[in-house]
Amino acid sequence: MSRHRIVRRMNYEDECCDDDDDYGHSYEDRYSVSPSTAAQFTYNRDRDLSLSNYMQDEIPEETEMEMEPEAEQEATGAAAGTGLTDVQKARLQSCVEEVHSIMGDTVPEAMVSETILRHDFNLEATLNELLARKDAPKSQRTPKKRKDRTQGASNQNQQAQQQQQQQKQQEVKEVLEQQKQFLDPSAPRPVLTLSTPKRATKGFAVDTNNSFVQQSQGEDAADRLNQEVAALSVASGGDKVKNPALSSVSGAAAKGTESPSSSRPQTPQKLDHAPMGVPRSASRSKNEKIDAKAEYAKRQGDKELINLVVIGHVDAGKSTLMGHLLYQLGSVHQRTMHKYEQESRKLGKSSFAFAWVLDETDEERSRGVTMDVAQTRFVTEKKMVTLLDAPGHKDFIPNMITGAAQADVAILVINATRGEFETGFESGGQTREHALLARSLGVSQIIVAVNKMDTVDWGQSRYEEIVKKLRQFLKQVGFKEADLSFVPCSGLGGENLTKTPSEPRLTAWYTGPTLVQQIDQFKNPERPVDKPFRLSVSDVFKGATGGFSIGGRVSAGYIRPGDKVMVMPAGNIAGIKNVTVDDLTAQIAFAGDHVTLSLTGIDMSSVNIGFVLCDLLSPSHCATRIRAKIVIFNLEVPVTRGYPVVFHYQCINEPAIIKRLVAILNKSTGEVVKNRPKCLTKNSSAIVEVEFERTVCVEMYTEFRDLGRFMLRSGGHTIAAGMIEEILQGKVQKDDQN
Amino acid sequence: MKLVSKYIDKGAGSVTLIAEEAEDMWHAYNIVTVGDTLRSTTIRKVTTESATGSVNASKVRTTLTIKVETIDFDTQACVLRVKGRNVCENQYVKLGAYHTLDLELNRPFTLAKHEWDSVSLQRIEEACDPTQNADLAAVIMQEGIAHVCLVTNSMTLVRAKIETNIPRKRKGLCEQHTKGLHRFYDQIIQAVLRHVNFDVVKCILIASPGFVKDQFAEYMLNQAVKQDLKVLTENRSKFVLVHASSGFKHSLKEVLNDPAVTARLSDTKALGEVKALDDFYQMLQNDPDRAFYGVRHCEKAADLQAIETLLVSDELFRSQDVQQRKRYVRMVDSVQENGGTVKIFSSLHVSGEQLGQLSGVAAILRFPIPDNDEDDESDQD
User: Fold this and answer.
1) Which of A190, A428, B2, B239 has the fewest CB atoms within 10 Å around its CB?
2) Which CATH class is domain B269-379?
3) What ipTM describes this predicted complex?
4) Residues A20-38 pLDDT 10s
């Protein structure tokens, strides 16, 4: 592709200052230094390096005058006096960090530095003394007991170590052993710093975090490095002293020291929740994060947002009940309702008129069956309710799972008609399965709406009978007594929905709340607003004004127009053009909101249902294989290795294979009953490994409770519910095993 | 498959076979092992150098005999490719020269082995049985996902996997949903037209959860009338609607087990396999001590003459390791000697796939053997 230059006609201006033309040139060609080299070796005023970087001797006056943090440090750091040289300070700093990473921040900084100085920077001696003095500091990073017994001695070793620590043993483990523990990838990783003693004396923490590659951050780190070597990082050092928690996560916080985050008091527990190995979002300062919480509280006002799923056996009258409720609350226009009545009568299905409010597709209307989750919203006295109307037919349980996964609370609709309740409640009926699914997917509060009471003449005995049976069953499933409530009603007649009942046969014995009043009594769920942003895509569609939009529920964090998000598992980056909550443009949307986002900078075909939009800096985990704890339900054939299942998670349903049965657990105590079992029979609890055909975005239960749950189905039956315990990379594992 | 000649003496010898259809290639793939000699006609590019030094390349059809080194099977095209060194010199090809034979349909090939075991002989017999023939197409679908598969006696081939994004129904925006759905159906119709040969296929199963199948069938016939797709309208009676629990490939197992299908297809191999695996799982549920899986466990049971039905995946017999293969053959033989039945699953079928995941061997026993040691299994994963 050589280009012949026509020199005579050449436009010299173009040729010489052709800025765009750097295909195939590296930076070195033009500047003779690469940016990283430049950053490292050239002096740059922007990076507030002090001149004293280049000096050997310290000028005490300057440091003293320079900043207050120094004073602060002195105040807190007592003996960490002024008489120290830079090198000593650096050593002190790193020792303090080391101590914190081992002991947690239970010991005051001042005491630590004092002790270190007394022991002349001898880490072991310091630790000895501190541990002896301190009444067994509770280690903040007690590793979760691993359930995998295939792990070898190193793991046991680790556990033993942990015990030692807990048993208030005074001798400090060898530093080397500590290192091993740090290096052990299986160890839980709230602590990201790897400060080996040798390096420690040099005075900087080495960031082991591989994903921490962004250049700007790299520079930050380099800056910090320089500063610390020169021991003039008084400012950041001061920060550190102020906020001891930070040093325990200093790997991630290496950058954190630059950002204002350090000014915000953070408990280490909170930081533990941050996905491992990934720095917390730096795209916004933490100050704004605090705002987010406040903003959330402000926006909530007196009306709390709640996601409500309506479940129950097919033909229990879920859609009709909710349709009528919406109508009574005024969410549905009188004229629209009239139209539905007319049209449904034409089809000879006048009783379905209210259900048509929610069942909108032709197919659903003509068959009279809800197929997909309908979503709408209504406002009660105290609550903003996002209503998810789940299908009851057993073939559409995948859709129901998607709905229930997005819900906080549920209404279980029961058909009170004689015979109907019984069929729904039998082992093949959906009443049981739905209740079980909802509970397993994290719905903790439930209202049982005993519907169609008019068909049984509002009989109290019938109501009592149903309540008794269900109460027992729901408690078995795991609902707490306090979170259960029962309401008799009629969806078609509209009795006891919003207004106090007028039916004399009901008022004769029922004086409790109406359905809406009962909805108002739901407790508000906790929303993980301060966690990194996550949204599982449940719908992709073309927007009205070109471009395309995605729908879904924000599972964690918050989102604003203009933010950048990562689309996983593909790893593309997209911008948020618009955030719509309930058909209204919003400036911000929080965890729990059902939103529509219009995206830019990405093609519609590269976003699919089940993809996850997440924070750029703490992206979601991609997995092809996971280890999970599952609870097996009633099933006909036992589960063996190689059992094909469908993995239902958020909006995903993916074919998967149970690759390995790790252990059977005792259902109540969680103890291992049998390792490597031959098969899993019904009503047992087990640890298994599940492998997918494709990469799937998942989260661990320990990090995001809501996002760590899944269901396994096979042959039209729900066979198990599970929690993701660990993400294993499938392909690698497979190679290892074969 | 046609058996032209068979000369086997004390286990060693050769057979000449003619593959007649694509499936026969799969059989051939399961019979040929490394170390065999294979003789077939082939096209070879021959370069000749004349006295003056000019090089002349030409393609020649010649018959070559090679000693097999590698075997490749392309499931989509059903082509068997065997590579090896020439063991029989002729005027074009020197001894020891490498050649890759592409086995062709309707051309005889001769396979010689030093040792013919019962499994391979049985396989030949089975392949040459013309009565066992049932071709079946299946469309397994759910909203957004569809698999168009061809099911033959020993193969399940996924011909098309269709995955589209269907926008959800949302308030006042149902057209997008309907439009998406129709686009999805159109794609399936195209796939069916392209991949299903209506002359061969006995019936076409349309399986889905819910009403998707009915909706699709209706839409397809409407489209067929509208677009004048004769193939579809003429073969209307071949479409069978069956319930499946999901649109994924493994649902094919339950589809084949559906009574409506069983009635239509006489006892075919694919069906038999599904049933046998089901029996195994049933046994595992009812009496776990009478259902074993894993090589070691099954071997142990075989030694005790306890095996009533042995399920083996044919994958195991394709093992490159001769010892390994012998081990399985021995087990199969001993079970048969003791009056048990052996079912060799095709690893291309869904049930075979599942069995493969389940270590490849499973057995239903005559009497319970307590499962005492759990460390036993530790090596097989």
Assistant:
1) A428
2) alpha beta
3) 0.81
4) 544 554 554 555 666 666 6
